[in-house]
Write a structure and sequence with these properties.
single chain; 492 residues; alpha/beta; Aldehyde Dehydrogenase, Chain A, domain 1; Aldehyde Dehydrogenase, Chain A, domain 2; 7-stranded mixed beta sheet; NADP; Acyl-CoA reductase
């Protein structure tokens, strides 16, 4: 008997599709998988009419929380054969290694905790706006505002399986009609969640308003049919220039693009963090954690650390010691957080090894066994290939002043780790003016509340809903048709 071929199931509005399978290649070339021919199911992916979203408004927010909490209970890996299968296949397609993937899948049910979701939604949108009209008397009118769900296509990134779960969750709480295009480096996880939803409640409105499928990005024959205003109102696209470029041709009146493009994250360390062995050890552990967690695949992972130790001989020697301590700390981190990279980028390794020949300007710590490396600059210049730092490779850069750091913070800078705390207020204010988008205590880029607030300088959850306004005159307001010319000037 031939071994079972991996399948990326299409799950369309309460129905699992596993027929008319064709072959696709996974990211990295380690695996091929089967998926329903997307051109044959294209007409089943979008909602037939926006009026069919009415059933979502028969649910209270508490009903939605109850549904998601029950789903979370069914997503425990030990009890869910769909997730077990998805995890097994994902070892080959994912950019991270087995222990890290095991951790992602183990933690998935906790995303669906009712109180966690309640707090997230109230902080991001305000539950009252999802439940009804929030009204206020202003300028002689009673003005109501309400957040309505939209028909949204989500082009999900594959650097972590939690993104599919997060997308399902966001669609449910906003009463959206959610289409998920799964990525080639994670074509299994979101479908496994959707299959669980079908088993749990195939006729539930949340289940019926979810469509999950794989197609190759840039398939013009399919996308020109699907990416139309009568099918979708918003496209939420995660990914780089290549993955978003083909989407932009379909943006037109009636379709809004919400782009969550790749970012680079950096950290800022004050010179006082190198004054004592204890502080230096703490800084090293914090840096290592922000660099290595998830093997540096997330946008929030630190890639450059600017240390205000000065560029004289003494400052650089201190920075070298911090670099060695950071490397050692990275090697000590638990495997659930980080491991030796799955495959160290060959071009990156070549660049790192070239720096070993320039020991007047750089000190390279580690990297001989493709395990990751710490590159210590001896001047205030970052490495030329800073945009390609990955696979647990970080550049420590000495600077004299904070202004030197802020000059390189821009709109591509997502997360900025800060240490010690005394720097926090000035960094988050001035850094925001330069383009930085998230400021955290160094070492806590991942050990925090997660994707519960703004991201990349926008608010995705507020963007995926439609903000509707209702107005009516307050009693006693004189209508225009009864006004004189002078009265109209005053009212207007």
């Amino acid at each position: 008997m031939s071994p079972k071929r991996p399948i990326s199931y299409a799950v369309l509005r309460g129905k699992v599709i596993e027929t008319d399978l064709i072959e696709f290649g996974g990211r990295g070339g380690d695996i091929t998988f089967l998926a329903p021919d997307p051109r044959l199911i294209a007409d089943q992916i979008p909602l037939a009419s926006p009026r069919l979203m009415e059933d979502l408004y028969e649910l209270s927010f508490e009903d939605i929380l109850d549904y998601l909490a029950e789903l979370g209970e069914r997503l425990h890996l030990k009890d869910n054969a769909y997730l077990q299968e998805a995890l097994e296949y994902s070892y080959a397609t994912a950019p991270t290694t087995k222990p890290i993937m095991d951790g992602f899948f183990h933690d998935m049910p906790f995303m669906f905790d009712k109180e966690r979701i309640r707090g997230m939604v109230d902080f991001n949108i305000g539950i009252d706006y999802l439940e009804g009209w929030v009204e206020k008397a202003i300028n002689g009118s009673k003005v109501g505002i309400r957040a309505y769900g939209a028909r949204t296509l989500h082009i999900v990134a594959g650097n972590g399986p939690v993104l599919g779960a997060l997308t399902v969750l966001r669609g449910a709480v906003t009463r959206g009609d959610t289409i998920v295009k799964v990525p080639s480096n994670d074509p299994f996880t979101t479908g496994a969640i959707a299959r669980t939803m079908v088993d749990m409640a195939p006729d539930h409105p949340i289940t019926r308003h979810l469509a999950v499928a794989y197609w190759r990005g840039g398939d013009e024959a399919l996308e020109s049919r699907l990416y139309q205003p009568h099918n979708i109102e918003k496209i939420c696209a995660w990914g780089g220039f290549a993955s978003v470029k083909h989407v932009t041709r379909y943006i037109q009146p009636g379709i809004e693009l919400i782009s969550l493009d790749p970012k680079r994250s950096a950290s800022i360390v004050g010179g006082e963090a190198l004054d004592t062995p204890e502080l230096m050890d703490e800084a090293a552990n914090r840096i290592a954690t922000d660099v290595a967690t998830g093997n540096q695949t997330a946008c929030a992972a630190c890639r450059m650390v600017y240390v205000m130790c000065g560029t004289d001989g003494e400052g650089v020697e201190k920075l070298k010691r911090l670099g060695r301590m950071t490397y050692d700390a990275m090697m000590r981190l638990p495997q659930a957080l980080t491991t030796k990279p799955k495959r160290y980028d060959r071009d990156l390794k070549s660049q790192v090894d070239m720096l070993r020949l320039s020991d007047d300007f750089y000190t390279v710590i580690g990297g001989e066994d493709d395990e990751g490396a710490v590159i210590v600059s001896h001047t205030s210049d970052r490495v030329d290939f800073w945009e390609y730092l990955a696979d647990r490779t970080v550049n420590l850069i000495p600077v004299e002043t904070l202004d030197e750091v802020l000059d390189v913070v821009d709109a591509y800078t997502q997360t900025v780790g800060v240490f010690p705390e005394s720097l926090r207020e000035i960094v988050r204010h001035r850094g925001a003016l330069h383009g930085g988008q998230r400021f955290v205590a160094l070492g806590y880029a991942f050990n925090g509340p997660g994707l519960v607030g703004p991201q990349d300088g926008i608010e995705p959850m507020r963007r995926i809903v439609k903000w509707i306004i209702s107005e009516e005159p307050l009693p006693g307001r004189k209508p225009f048709w009864e006004c004189t010319d002078e009265e109209i000037k005053v009212v207007a």
